[in-house]
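Checklist before submission:
- one chain only
- standard amino acids only
- sequence pasted in full

Submission:
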Amino acid sequence: MKNILLSVMVICTLVGGALAGTLADFSDIEVSPDNYFETGSLDLAVSDSDGTHFNGVDVPAFWEVSDAWPCCDKSVFLDLENVGQGFQQVPNVYIHFKNVDCYWIQPKDYSVIWVDEDGDIVAEPAWAPGAGQAQILPDGTILPDYPKPLTEPEYVAELGGIAGENATGGLVTVPGIGLCYGEDCQLAEHIGVLMWIAGPWPDEDKPESSDAVPSAAWRMVTLPDPNGDGVTKLDELICVQIDLGGLPCNEGIWVHISLHLQDFDEEDAYTQGLIPTTYFDETNDIEAKFDDWPTNALQKDGVRFDMAFELLQ
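Returned file contents:
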C-alpha cells in the first residue's frame, strides 16, 4: 500500500510539472490605439465673375436688372467650386431656378390708367405706391394684385385701342391681348435662357476670372425645350434641375448664363389664340412697324426668382 501511494504522488508531480511548462511558453501582445473613422464632405462655393467667394447664406442676387427693353440681354458669370474633401465617387452639380413670381411696377409718370382684373378703368387706389416703387412697399407691405397701373401703350396692347397712324394719317386700331399679369407670370414666358459651362479644372489650374477662360473652353448646356421652338424660357425651367456634370473635390467650373427679353410678336399672340387673326402684313413697311405691338403689354412688369446651386452625391 505504501508503495502504491508513493507512485501516485510521483505521477501527479510529473503531470503538474508538464502543465506548468506548457503555461510558461513565450507570448506577445500588440495594441493599435486611437483608431477612427471620419466622413468626407461636400461643400459648394459660389463665386462671381471676379472670383469673390460666397458660401452658406451670403450668396447674393446676380441679376438686378431695371428698365429692360426688348432684346435686352443680361449675362452673369459664376464660378462653382467643390471645396469638400474625400469622395472617390464624383458628385454632380446642378442649377435650379425656383420661386418665380411676377409683379407690376409703378410707372414714374403718374399719368397712368388704373384697371381692375377685368380691364375696367377704376380710380387710383389710396394705397398706390410712390414713383418707381414695386408691388412690395419699402416697409414690407404687400399690395393687392389689382387695380393695376397701365401706361398708355401698355393699355392699348393689353386691352386694345389706337396704336398709331398709318402712312396716310389714318388711325391704326389693334385688339387687346388681355392683361399680362397674374398667376401665369407671363413675363417669364418672354425671357429666354442660354447657358454655357467651362471646366472642371483643379484649383491650381482654374482661371481666376471669367475673362481669363479661353473662348474655346466654353460649351453650351442643353436646356429643356418643351414647346419645341428652339428657345428655352424662364418659366419652362421652374422646378427643373439643370445638370452641369461631375465636379470632383478641389475642382471648379465657370458658368455663363444669359437672360434675354424677347419681343412678343403678333403672330405669337395669334398662335396662342389671344387675338382672332393676324393683323398686319410684315412685308408691308407701313404695317410692319406695328407688328410687335403686343410687346407693349410687357411694359412695367417684373419677375423675381431664386437660384439654387446644388452639389449632390
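Reviewer check: Residues 44-312 form one domain.
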